[in-house]
Each structure stands twice: as C-alpha cells, then as structure tokens.
C-alpha cells in the first residue's frame, strides 16, 4: 500500500501548561497538508508518544481524522513492547477512524526474531486496517531483520515498513523480496533521495514540517529524470535534515516551526528546551531557507 511520497511524523502541539492543544493541532494539520505532506503519522516518536497517555492519543487520533476529513492518510503510532497492550491501543486507533497503524519494534525486553514475528502477527490478526511496521533499532535496541519483515509482508494487512535503520542494503533486500503491494518508507530524512533511488516509496519525515515542499520537489525532479538537479537539492537540504536532529527530537523541529510563525509549544520531560546556542544554530538554518 502506497500512502504517498512524503509523510510527516507530526509533532504533538502543547499549550503553555503542557496539555495537548487541539486548536494548534488543527492549524498544524492544515499547514502540513498545504505544504508538501501526502499523509500524517500521529503519536509516533516525533509526536512524543512515550509521554502521551492513552486518552490523549485517542483524542488526538479522533481530532486529526476529523480535521483531515479524508484528504490524506492518517497513520496512528500504536505500538509498544507489550503485545496485549499494543492490541488494545491499535484497536482503539482503528475505532478512532485512522487509515492504518504503525507498530514499533518491541523495545526494552529484546525479543528474538521469532518473538517479533509473532508479536506483529498477533496484533495484525486483531485488526481490519493496514499495519505498518516501524524498524528503529537506534531507539528500540532490537532490529527487525530483513527476512523477518519479508515474512511479515505475507500477512494480508501488514502492508508497509518504516525503515529507520539507515541500512540501504537491507532496504534493497526488502524491496526486492516483497511484492509491489508492500511499501517501504525511509525513516531517515538524510536518506530520502538515496532510498527513493533504490525503490523506496518515500519518506516518513521530521524535516517535512519545515521543508515539505522542497522534499516533494526533490523527488519530482528525480522522477522526471533530472537526477543532477535532484542531487543538488538533496545537498542543499542536508543541513536541515541533520539539523532537525541536532538535539533530541522533536525539540529542534518545534523550535523551527515557531521560527516560521507556527507555535506548537514546548516538549514534555524528560525532553527539555534548546539551549541558547542550540536555538541560534536552528535559527541560522532557518535563515538559510
């Protein structure tokens, strides 16, 4: 299943008390849809999902689904390291009307490949909507190996994977050994173009909050055979790709959005606001745009 080329891993807007701000969420959704986002991933890593309670996640899903109103796919981050808890959360996401769920690799308890296969298979069996696997060993410690993903892709409603391994060889193996109905998205902004070149469907991006149109332009240039122009734009965007991860995400991108006039509030502990020097660095990047 192809959800589009540029999907934004959406931040969760907070008010000055640290509560989810639904008015700001509406503004953000409209801004993203008007500026290069083909779809939205809600309550993922960038959405500070570890600090959101279940009730907040459900309320966000319902609000975003209502705001989007069918104009773009809405994918809900609904995974955890507990299979039963993931089933409960994923079913709440389905009932909230999302188009798909994204399930992260089980973190902390370090299951085997067979354990991870059974984890995702069991959750998928409880759902009617599509499932995207989220492979992010930098955060979850465990890595879902390509062959495990290839086997999971044979399950009818396991339709996609977000590969945040930074491993182009593994991405190529997955693309080569899954059918055309299974999509692969890079989870690393700096690999947007390289992964697209080897057959990825697109990117689930943090940087798309501020350069979504430019990322769309880069991929369109490549599709049109203007490879040198696409590569040149990639090089120009690279400082932004890397800068959005110059401090724990999503702190830099929330600062960048505020500099663009779109205040999405601060971050929740244990994340903290940028230092003066870190903020100046992000300001310089934004000035360069």
TrEMBL record:
A GO molecular function held by the record: 4-hydroxy-tetrahydrodipicolinate synthase activity
Residue intervals passing through the bilayer: none
Site (Part of a proton relay during catalysis): 45, 108
SUPFAM superfamilies reported for this sequence: Aldolase
Name listed for the protein in its UniProt record: 4-hydroxy-tetrahydrodipicolinate synthase
Subunit structure: Homotetramer; dimer of dimers.
Top-level taxon of origin: Bacteria
EC nos: 4.3.3.7
Keywords for this protein: Amino-acid biosynthesis, Cytoplasm, Diaminopimelate biosynthesis, Lyase, Lysine biosynthesis, Schiff base
Catalytic activity: L-aspartate 4-semialdehyde + pyruvate = (2S,4S)-4-hydroxy-2,3,4,5-tetrahydrodipicolinate + H2O + H(+)
HAMAP family listed in its UniProt record: DapA (MF_00418)
Pathway(s) where this gene product acts: Amino-acid biosynthesis; L-lysine biosynthesis via DAP pathway; (S)-tetrahydrodipicolinate from L-aspartate: step 3/4
Claim: Phosphoprotein is one of the keywords in the record: no
Family, per entry: Belongs to the DapA family.
Organism: Halobacillus mangrovi
Active site, renumbered: 134 (proton donor/acceptor), 162 (schiff-base intermediate with substrate)
UniProt enzyme class: lyase
Pfam families, sorted: DHDPS (PF00701)
């Amino acid at each position: 299943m192809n959800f589009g080329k540029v999907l934004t891993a959406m931040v969760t807007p907070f008010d000055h008390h640290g509560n989810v701000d639904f008015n700001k969420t509406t503004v953000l959704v409209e801004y993203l849809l008007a500026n290069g986002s083909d779809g939205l991933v809600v309550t993922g890593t960038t959405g500070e999902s570890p600090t959101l309670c279940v009730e907040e996640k459900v309320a966000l899903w319902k609000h975003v689904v209502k705001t989007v109103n069918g104009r773009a796919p809405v994918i809900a981050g609904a995974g955890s390291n507990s299979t039963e808890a993931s089933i409960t959360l994923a079913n709440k996401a389905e009932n909230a009307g999302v188009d798909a769920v994204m399930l992260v690799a089980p973190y902390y308890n370090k299951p085997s490949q067979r354990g991870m296969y059974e984890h995702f298979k069991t959750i998928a069996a409880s759902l009617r909507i599509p499932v995207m696997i989220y492979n992010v060993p930098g955060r979850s410690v465990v890595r879902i190996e390509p062959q495990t993903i290839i086997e999971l892709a044979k399950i009818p409603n396991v339709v996609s994977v977000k590969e945040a391994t930074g491993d182009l060889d593994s991405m190529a193996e997955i693309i080569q050994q899954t059918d055309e109905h299974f999509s692969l998205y890079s989870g690393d902004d700096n690999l947007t173009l390289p992964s697209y070149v080897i057959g990825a469907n697109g990117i689930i991006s943090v940087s798309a909050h501020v350069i979504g149109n430019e990322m769309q332009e880069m991929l369109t240039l490549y599709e049109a055979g203007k490879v040198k122009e696409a590569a040149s734009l990639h090089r120009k965007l690279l400082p932004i790709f890397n800068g959005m991860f110059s401090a724990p995400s999503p702190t830099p991108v929330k600062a960048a959005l505020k500099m663009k006039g779109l205040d999405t509030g601060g971050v929740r502990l244990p994340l903290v606001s940028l230092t003066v020097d870190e903020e100046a660095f992000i300001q310089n990047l934004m000035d360069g745009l």
